């Protein structure tokens, strides 16, 4: 049966640990030797394209990046038809899209694994990178505390799931109306301690890692002014970071808007693990 990776909880806790173990190996297995990987980009990206193309190469495969004007999901061809074609050429399909149902429909019609490189509901590969970074910094994840400050968006939802699978306590500080999806919160709360609050100081106090994302994501530009007002007081600055543990790290999925969700002094400061 073909398995897909549409959100972090497509892995169980043991499988997630194995994935992180493998990611730390200096010489990854060449599981894609002589095979292709189709990388569909409905949304553009600096980091996702670079990381995914190089990952395929490091696994011995050949990446084929397909931009939106070349595939035009559901405009030029349906998601299902695209999956039927690409899964006959390639060993894996990655897709960075807007609506989450597009990766679900790609997966439903594909003969090969489909990886969610980002959708409006989830960003699982980002969470894998964050968990790996925290594990490298702390030596382990169980019982560590990660505090997310800002928009309870796709990054937040996947982080909730990944941190819970790893045995971490999760705290989210978001303004009213911008909380993470109830489904993600309840899923995580069934496994670990989860706090959702409107107070960033409460969330960050004694945390091991402090995380944020932009207040206005791609596709939300018409909401920018309203969001700036709603998120006043949710900036991660030096004063807020001082409430975390002395050895706490700062994380951000990028791109960052200095002076909005994070100060330049935190983003570029000694506690920042963003670039790692």
In short:
The chain has helices spanning 13-23, 47-58, 68-71, 79-89, 100-109, 124-138, 154-165, 182-189, 200-204, 224-230, 238-241, 264-267, and strands spanning 36-41, 62-67, 92-96, 114-118, 145-149, 169-173, 194-197, 209-212, 249-252.
Order of helices and strands: HEHEHHEHEHEHEHEHEHHEH
Radius of gyration: 19 Å
Number of strands: 9
Computed structural class: alpha/beta
Biggest sheet details: 5 strands, parallel
Report the total helices. 12
Which strand-content bin applies to the residues?
15-25%
What are the segments in which pLDDT stays under 50 over at least 5 consecutive residues? none
**What's the overall average pLDDT, rounded?**
96
Strand order, largest beta sheet: 7-6-5-8-9
Q: What is the 3D shape?
A: globular
Distance between the termini: 35 Å
Helix content: 25-40%
Set down the secondary structure blueprint.
Blueprint (H helix, E strand, L loop, with lengths): L12 H11 L12 E6 L5 H12 L3 E6 H4 L7 H11 L2 E5 L3 H10 L4 E5 L5 H15 L6 E5 L4 H12 L3 E5 L8 H8 L4 E4 L2 H5 L4 E4 L11 H7 L7 H4 L7 E4 L11 H4 L9
Parallel strand pairs: 1-2, 1-3, 3-4, 5-6, 5-8, 6-7, 8-9
Helix pairs in contact: 4-5, 6-7, 7-8
Which terms summarize this structure?
five-stranded parallel sheet; 12 helices; alpha/beta; 276 residues; four-stranded parallel sheet
Would you write up a description of this structure?
The protein is an alpha/beta fold and 276 residues long. It is built from twelve helices and nine strands. It has helices at 13-23, 47-58, 68-71, 79-89, 100-109, 124-138, 154-165, 182-189, 200-204, 224-230, 238-241, 264-267, and strands at residues 36-41, 62-67, 92-96, 114-118, 145-149, 169-173, 194-197, 209-212, 249-252. A five-stranded parallel sheet has the order 7-6-5-8-9. A four-stranded parallel sheet has the order 2-1-3-4, sandwiched between helices. Helix 4 crosses helix 5 (100-109) and helix 7 runs parallel beside helix 8 (182-189). The longest helix is centred in the middle third of the chain and has 15 residues, at 124-138. The model has no long low-confidence stretch (mean pLDDT 96).
């Amino acid at each position: 049966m073909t398995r897909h990776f549409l959100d972090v909880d497509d892995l169980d806790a043991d499988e997630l640990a194995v994935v992180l173990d493998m990611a730390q190996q200096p010489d990854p297995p060449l599981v894609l030797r002589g095979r292709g990987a189709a990388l569909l980009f409905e949304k553009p990206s600096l980091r996702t394209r670079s990381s995914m193309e190089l990952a395929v190469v490091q696994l011995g495969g050949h990446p084929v990046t397909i931009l939106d004007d070349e595939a035009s999901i559901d405009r030029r061809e349906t998601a299902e038809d695209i999956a039927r074609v690409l899964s006959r050429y390639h060993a894996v399909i990655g897709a960075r899209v807007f609506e989450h149902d597009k990766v679900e429909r790609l997966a439903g019609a594909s003969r090969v694994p489909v990886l969610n490189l980002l959708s409006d509901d989830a960003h699982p590969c980002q969470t894998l990178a964050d968990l790996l970074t925290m594990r490298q910094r702390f030596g382990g994840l169980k019982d560590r505390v990660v505090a997310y400050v800002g928009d309870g968006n796709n990054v937040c939802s996947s982080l909730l799931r990944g941190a819970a699978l790893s045995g971490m306590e999760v705290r989210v500080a978001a303004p009213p109306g911008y909380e993470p999806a109830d489904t993600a919160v309840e899923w995580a709360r069934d496994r670990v301690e989860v706090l959702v609050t409107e107070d960033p100081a409460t969330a960050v106090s004694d945390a091991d890692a402090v995380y944020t994302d932009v207040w206005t994501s791609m596709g939300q530009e018409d909401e920018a002014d309203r969001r700036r007002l709603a998120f006043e007081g949710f900036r991660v600055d030096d004063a807020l970071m001082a409430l975390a543990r002395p050895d706490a790290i700062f994380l951000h999925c990028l791109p960052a808007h200095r002076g909005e969700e994070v100060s330049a002094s935190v983003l570029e400061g000694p506690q920042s693990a963003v670039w790692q």
